[in-house]
Amino acid sequence: MEQLDYIIVGQGLAGSLLDFSFRKNGLHGVVIDNGHKNAASKVAAGMINPITGRKYVKSWMIDELLPRAIEIYGQLSKLVGVELFAERNIVRALYSRAEENEWEIKTTLEQTKKFRVDKPVLNEYSKFIKPSLSYGELTKGYHVHVPVIIRAYRAFLEKYKFIVETQFNHSKLKIENDGFVYDLVKAKQVFFCDGYKVNQNPFFNDINHQPSKGEALIIKVQDFEPNKILKQKLNFVPFGQGVFWVGAGYEWEFENEKPTKGERDRIEKILKDNLSKPYKVIDHIAAVRPTVIDRRPYIGAHKIHSNMFLFNGFGTKGASLIPYWSEHLMRHICFKEPLASEVFPYR
Ligand SMILES: Cc1cc2nc3c(=O)[nH]c(=O)nc-3n(C[C@H](O)[C@H](O)[C@H](O)COP(=O)(O)OP(=O)(O)OC[C@H]3O[C@@H](n4cnc5c(N)ncnc54)[C@H](O)[C@@H]3O)c2cc1C
Hints:
This protein is of the alpha+beta class and about 350 residues long. It folds into two domains: about 1-45 and about 145-210 and about 295-345, 3-Layer(bba) Sandwich (FAD/NAD(P)-binding domain), CATH 3.50.50.60; about 90-140 and about 210-290, D-Amino Acid Oxidase, Chain A, domain 2 (2-Layer Sandwich). Helices cover about 25% and strands about 30% of the residues. It has helices spanning about 15-25, 60-80, 95-105, 125-130, 145-160, 260-275, 320-335, and strands spanning about 1-10, 30-35, 45-50, 50, 55-60, 85, 90-95, 115, 135-140, 140-145, 165, 175, 180, 185-190, 210-220, 230, 235-240, 245, 280-290, 300, 310. Strands 1, 2, 11, 12, 13, 14, 20 and 21 form an eight-stranded mixed beta sheet that branches. The protein has an eight-stranded mixed beta sheet with strand order 8-9-7-16-17-18-15-19. A three-stranded antiparallel beta sheet has the order 3-10-6, with helices on one face. Helix 1 (about 15-25) packs parallel to helix 7 (about 320-335) and helix 2 (about 60-80) crosses helix 7 (about 320-335). The longest helix has 19 residues, at about 60-80. It binds flavin-adenine dinucleotide. Flavin-adenine dinucleotide binds next to helix 1, strand 2, strand 15, strand 19 and helix 7. The site of flavin-adenine dinucleotide has 42 residues, from helix 1, strand 2, strand 15, strand 19 and helix 7.
């Protein structure tokens, strides 16, 4: 029987970066994933936005998260030979005087002003986007190519036979005194990075999740290549060569993970109202985010099985949160550093 340090269940962004962190530190393990059947990571726009929400609040821990994200996505880019992230300014439409005032107040605070661009510039968008009352602009935003990361990291794992493509069956996991046995593998630790499907995971389904579905269109617009991300009713995230990711809403009640006509119609209506240039829909994608009510991830050991861990709950912000927290969990496992209490799963 093969003896390993760990089994990771799920190869979305969380499972990929946790595995990367472990391998860099000399651990050996296997990843089990069902072929990205339920991966939010294959649909994510991959924005990192330092100031978010209707109240323009500085993103939780962004000063700590950004340097880690830049470092780790840089290392991964070298590993797979593809540039996996890019800095992108974010231009945000403001629709009323009240919003303008709020933006002024919130983006001139001591802790936020480094993200603010004093004179917002729409550049190419100004030619084809219906003008809003005014705009605010942020620097130090990023676009992370999340779907590319999970495809490229899977290819890396496959090359070395570090991944098994199958549905993980929890009832087949044998819990022993010194670890776990699953099929032909024995491992000291198990890490669940199963995204919103944690709600069907008998070991952690008592933890409070509020999954939210999101849908987006991938569109192509001829001769239109702005560099910035635009938030105007929808997020317009440029992928280059006239291709944009546009979306997404939040659906709290849904039948399944599939794209729906209703959401497509809604997005297309907003597009037609805001974009004065013809576009072609290349794809319509949907997935469910592993969202948590208090918007903090869930990272920690099972209440009975101390070598079984949850690494989940990255909600709408996996691109910025996962690099930092995968290193944090790795340091707990490899160097016995304590885990932060604010991400404790049983809170
Ligand atoms: C429309 C949309 C837009 C988004 N935009 C952004 C954005 O701009 N910025 C941002 O930071 N975040 C964004 N997100 C959120 C982001 O996608 C998530 O935070 C992140 O991808 C979560 O990664 P994960 O690895 O935890 O989960 P997932 O990506 O869902 O991965 C879980 C993996 O586990 C597998 N799995 C589950 N159960 C089993 C099992 N029993 N056996 C085998 N495999 C299993 C799944 O198939 C999947 O491959 C967006 C999400 C959506 C849906």
